[in-house]
Amino acid sequence: MTIADIALFPPRASTTASQVDMLFLFLLTVCGAVTLLVAVLLVYFAIRYRRRSGEVGNPPKTDASDALEWFWTLTPLLFFAGMFIWGAKVYFGAYRPPDDAATIYVVGKQWMWKFQHPEGQREIDSLHVPLGRPIRLLMTSEDVIHSLFIPDFRIHMDLLPGRYTSVWFKPTRVGMYRLFCSQYCGTNHAGMTGVVVVMEPADYQKWLHESAEGSMALQGRKVFLKYRCISCHSGDAGGRAPTLGGLFGNIVVLNDGRTVKADEYYIRESIVYPSAKIVAGYENIMPTYQGQVSEEEIFQLIAYLQSLKPGETPSRVESFPPPTTTPPINTKDR
Amino acid sequence: MNEQTPAQPMALLNEPATNYLDASYSVVSWLFTTDHKRIAILYLIPVTLMFFIGGLAISLDRLNLMTPDGMLVDADTYNKLFTIHGVIMVFFFLVPVIPTVLGNFFLPLMIGAKDLAFPRINLLSWYLYMIGAAWTSAAVLAGGVDTGWTFYTPYSSMSSHYNVVLTMMGVVIAGFSSLLTGLNFIVTVHWLRAPGMNWFRLPIFVWTMYATSFIFLLAVPVLAMSLILVILERILQIGIFDPALGGDPLLFQHLFWFYSHPAVYIMILPGMGVVSEVIPCFARKQLYGYKFVAFSSFGIACLGFFVWAHHMFVAGISLYAALIFSSLSFMVAVPSAIKVFNWTATLYKSSITFEAPMLFALGFVALFTFGGMAGLFLATLGVDMHVHDTYFVIAHFHFIMVGGMVLGYMAGLHYWWPKMTGRLYSDWWSRITAMVIFIGFFLTFLPQFVLGYNGMPRRYHMYAPEFQVWNVMSTAGASILGVGYVLPLVYLLGSLRYGKPAGRNPWHATGLEWQTPSPPPTENFEESPVVVRAPYQYHLEKAQNEP
């Protein structure tokens, strides 16, 4: 290792990174100047006004100036206002994804990262993304709180159990970047790391199709059938439960007159806490699927619903083949 | 003022024979004392012990970080060590140390009172502290705890396999000790001031103790409540914080930081109070802007209650809530800035000597300013979202808590040691120690800012190889810092046997505590003092070289 290898700043590999660094340098300049001023004054006063041998008596008092007091009370506020506004702008930018952002689904658990791409690729502790495309991460945790931290992108967001959080980035450099869990999560917290691989879009397309087991929507369709959601949420408009075709992204009217947008948060809530929001015209009859359906399966269901156009709900038939052999009969229970 | 001539042996012979130390030598007389000065000494011993235990724990972790794969301990041990460090340093050292040791001893003396308002409650506080400390130590001995001092749920409530409940019980008990101390201080300041000691003649140290006491009263119950809720969830599986049981994972963070952010000001305000005493004394100059410094303590105490969610900018709170908490966090920096400017202005046209208390106080101002500036980076949303939970944060709060608070405590301890013990310590060694601690501190924590911005998360027992250089620098600095902490143990204890008698007022300071003999008699003053003027009027006092 040489001196040149010792980095003061991490690489900048996302659009957010340069914004954060500019803001950081602004703060460094202002705060550095004030710190230097205080330090210089302290040292200067300490030398200039040191007690000399032979000095007799105490110095006369200096009357405090109220004008000076108010000056150094109010001036910092001006600088603070600047830091606050600039900081808020960068922060809002990092958590409000552009409309064309692609969503990748993230589940954290002790002590690994699980990523699902809408196209169906799933990976653990590594995240492949294409260069130049805004990526939104929709995240949750299976157990305790974790935090996704990619220093070279300057982004950071906690993963909460039972809730969705999101953050987005747009990679600007091809390469491999470290990914950390930064919220202490137990024994192997320091091992909950991964790597973000930023690829040329063409390479990314190739990678996507290397070993996918069908898109997330297709997997979601299997989940939909596995939990027999179909038996109530049939394509039949007069059925026991609302039809789900074309639902995603639309406004839903609830039975208490409120309206809600059918986004990921709403869909998750409706699966885990079905009685929280009841669609107008329907009864509160759905059981909770909390503890039965995994977080990854909920993500797949969301992807499925996103793909579901009006009238596309599958017909109410068993799509799994019947068992090829008759299960053994338990004579004891008879 | 009835100024005595301190350096002359004749004056020493005139001191009364029984001071508070000589009143009785039996163990019972100590364990059942209601003398605030004796209780202060009773606190000094365990608080010092706790500091060294907490320091030893983190030294092992710091050593472990010499190599990227963690050369010394395994992951669980590492996690337990930093938890011990955090819990002990925060709840059993930083929060209580200045109020219970220096506050207990000097608050009554500085306002001209014979004791605190409730001497027996004061003793009760000490017992609560001892029980809490023993309880938490038992948890450590019984296998430790690995949640970090922040006890975040649902990790602490549902996931951790170690002694979470036991540790928290100790913290809650110690919390009530602080609460009672706060109550005692508030009543004392209201009712027991000497004749003539009106509010604007109070030394700043008393103002900061008073403000700190209010934080104790308002915040400690919230801490106790939130820890008890965790205990309930852990034992009875009541769903409060864990979403799997129907709880809210962020609720704990709101409750915890509602206490623990104000607690940061509990830790720093007393340090500011000490420095406001020491700087005027060794600059022979009235404190600049007394009222601004006094009121800024209250500004800090009040605003400090409304900034808690700045610990949660990336925790999944609403973006608009983050805006409010960011702006309030900038506001709370203003009163701190006022204090720094006033301390600096006090030095203008003064006459400075550099004894150990002054060196520590100047170190405090420098490191507090540096750490405070880093705080502005963290209040800025766009920077915090990068450096949150990294070593940048660690470096920031150690600049405030260690660079600020510990140096403030050292300044106070060195300033008042002659009054407490009646002895002078080694001038040369104490000055050297101040320098060693200052330099060791900078070398330990400056590299951590770089580590943090480069993305090293906190609480990692192993790390990516590119972080090694800075970690090695930090560990090297910590070894110097460690030496600096051990030295006072040697020369302060040595002073008890070999130190020269201090006399009443070795620093020629103003303030009532310096008018009574050292060590003070049990009833504090030979005759009740009457106060006739504002504090720090050094231009009216005799100088050190005047007979």
Summary?
The complex is a heterodimer of chains A (334) and B (547). With 334 residues, chain A is of the alpha+beta class. Chain A has helices spanning 15-48, 66-95, 201-208, 216-226, 264-272, 295-307, and strands at 102-109, 112-116, 122-124, 126-130, 135-141, 146-150, 155-159, 165-169, 175-181, 193-199, 251-253, 259-261.
Q: CATH homologous superfamily of the largest domain in chain A, by name?
A: Cupredoxins -  blue copper proteins
- Which fold does the CATH topology of chain B refer to? Cytochrome C Oxidase, Chain A
Give the topology string of chain A: H per helix, E per strand. HHEEEEEEEEEEHHEEHH
Tally of individual domains of chain B: 1
Number of DSSP E strands of chain B: 2
Tell me about the largest β-sheet of chain A.
Answer: 5 strands, mixed
**Which shape of chain B, going by the Cα principal axes?**
globular
Question: What do you see in this structure?
Answer:
The complex is a heterodimer of chains A (334) and B (547). Chain A has 334 residues and is α+β, with helices and mostly antiparallel strands. Chain A has 2 domains: 9-45 and 74-213, Immunoglobulin-like (Sandwich), CATH 2.60.40; 216-316, Cytochrome c-like domain (Cytochrome Bc1 Complex, Chain D, domain 2). Chain A has 6 helices and 12 strands. In chain A, the strands form 3 sheets. A 5-stranded mixed β-sheet of chain A has the order 3-2-1-5-8, covered by helices on one side. In chain A, strands 4-10-9-6-7 form a 5-stranded mixed β-sheet. In chain A, strands 11-12 form a two-stranded antiparallel sheet. In chain A, a hairpin with a 4-residue loop joins strand 6 (146-150) and strand 7. Chain A starts with 14 loop residues before the first helix and ends in a 27-residue tail after the last helix. The mean pLDDT of chain A is 88. Chain B has 547 residues and is an all-alpha fold. Chain B has a single domain (37-517), classed as Cytochrome c oxidase-like, subunit I domain (Cytochrome C Oxidase, Chain A, Up-down Bundle), CATH 1.20.210.10. Chain B contains 16 helices and 2 strands. Chain B has helices at 9-13, 27-31, 36-64, 75-111, 119-141, 155-159, 164-191, 204-236, 251-283, 290-303, 319-346, 356-379, 381-387, 391-421, 427-453, 468-498; strands spanning 423-424, 500-501. Chain B has a two-stranded antiparallel ribbon with strand order 1-2. In chain B, helix 4 runs parallel beside helix 7 (164-191) and helix 14 (391-421) runs antiparallel to helix 15 (427-453). The longest helix of chain B has 37 residues, at 75-111. The model of chain B is unreliable at 1-14 (pLDDT under 50). Chains A and B meet through helix 1, helix 2, strand 7 and strand 9 of A and helix 4, helix 6, helix 11, helix 12 and helix 13 of B.
